[in-house]
Structures are given as C-alpha cells and as structure tokens.
Amino acid sequence: MLNARALIPACDVVLLTLDSLRYDVAQAALAAGELPTLAPLLPGGQWEQRHTPGSFTYAAHQAFLAGFLPTPARPGRHPRLFAAQFEGSASTSGRTFTFEEATLPAALAARGYHTVCVGGVGFFNSRTALGSALPALFQEAYWSPASGVKNPDSARVQIDLATQRLAALSGRVFLLLNMAATHTPTHFYLPGERRDSPATQRAALRSVDAALPPLLAALRARGDTLMIVCADHGTCFGEDGYHGHRLAHPLVWTVPYAEFVLPGAA
After folding, report:
1. pLDDT 10s per residue in the chain (266 long)?
2. Residues 239 and 35: beta-carbon distance below 8 Å
C-alpha cells in the first residue's frame, strides 16, 4: 500500500473508475498486450484482484468516496489508503490518510484541493435528485450525453474535458473520472456485434486505454499524482443465468485494481 498520509497534500489525487469492468476481462486484455498505455503503469505490470464494497455504481462510489476502496481478494486485515475516522476502525495504519470529514472530496477540499468530477453513467447526470447526489460532493461536476454510455467515443470526450479542467486549475486537484465506455452497452465497440459480452467489454476497455495519453500528459505537467485505477463492480453476461449487476455473483464482486504514483515531468 502506498503511503497516502505522506502523499497528501503533496500531489494531485485521481480516482479513475472503469465502470462495470470485470477482473477477468481486464486480465485478458492485459495478457494479450491490448493495454499499451495502462500496462506500464500497473505495479508489477499486473492488475490486483480485489473485492468491491458495492455491486452497482451508486453504492460502490458512495463507499469509495468515504474511503472504502476495493479490498484485496485474499484473507487478512488490509489497511486502507483513505479512511474517515470513526471509533473502532481496524483498517487504518500509519500510511493511511485519515480525515474527520464524512467524504474524501470534503476532506481534500478542506486541505486546499479543488475537487472535480467528470461523470459517465447515469448516476452522475444531475438530471434527478439521485443523479445529483454524487456530483454534489464535488466543487465542479460535469456530465453530458456525449460522455455517457451510449456514445462509443465517450472515453475521448471525458478525457478531453478532464484535461481542459486540469490545465485551467493551478492548485492541487482531486479528480474523479467515472469512465462510461466499459458499462453496457458495449456491443458497438465490435463491428457487427448486437449483444454485450466479455469480448465487447474488452474492446471498450481498449478504447479507454487509447484515449488515456492526453490525461496522463496533463497530469505529469502538473507534478506527481496519486492514481487509483479500478472498476467499481463487474457485470454478468449470462454466466450461471445472471445478467447485469446489483447482484451477488463473483464476477460482479471481483474487480481489477491498481494504485501508483504517476511522476511529474522532470
């Protein structure tokens, strides 16, 4: 685990969630050499297998933004990177960034960060009271149909917006980037396909990887960045008769995860 207590407030913080991305799909894409942007950044060149605290986007992000990131998928007591203080907490260590505030965006804002959310799925669209709950945690929040799940070019749209905001801000930034591409529907990422499947989600992940270089360049220009790249949950494509998520299936609970420091340009 990185020393988040030492890194904050010395660097930017980015939480990039690959919505609905299954661990097995992420692993297959990595093993096939399909993630040339992400692969060099992953510690040891591998995704870490973890268990998500929520089986759908809203629940998982509410947990993430309170400091409950996915937990390593192995027995043991695992210290957390971030943690809101509460009596009896057994998952903090000297490397954990702890805070009194209820949410991570509030905690970082209190320490001088400017908080920005670039949403992808409908829980970030601000069109309803529910769709406004997560964006309301941030000082700036953005969503449009072009950044949503129905646009095959959503990854580029989201990253273009994120890089524009990063370039315009001079102080420390906390950026949540919820990538819509890997959430259903994904069939249009493979020509001729009409059904979503692990193969179409893998193609969607390739589109995210291809769109990432401008974001990484913008972050490097600002200095060091603590980055967390993970899925919020997985999804089923008919396995054991299950479809979708918000259900208790191993393919939903098991997610890819990586945390690392992206070094600033020399």
Report:
1. 899 999 999 999 999 999 999 999 999 999 999 999 999 999 999 999 999 999 999 999 999 999 999 999 999 889 899 999 877 677 888 899 999 999 999 999 999 999 999 999 999 999 999 999 999 999 999 999 999 999 999 999 999 999 999 999 999 999 999 999 999 999 999 999 999 999 999 999 999 999 999 999 999 999 999 999 999 999 999 999 999 999 999 999 999 999 999 999 86
2. no
3-state SS assignment for residue 17:
strand
Q: Which among 247, 245, 234, 103 is positioned nearest to 176, based on CA atoms?
A: 103
Which of 225, 220, 249, 227 lies closest to 237 in space, CA to CA? 249
Contact 225, 217 (CB under 8 A): no
Token code pair at residue 63: 């947990």
Q: Model-level pTM greater than 0.85?
A: yes
Instruction: Give whole-number Cα distances, 4 to 13, 44, 92, in Å.
Output: 10, 19, 11
Residue 230 near residue 256, CB atoms below 8 Å: yes
Instruction: List CB contacts of 93: < 8 A, sequence separation 6 or more.
Output: 1, 79
Encoded tokens for 10:
């010395």
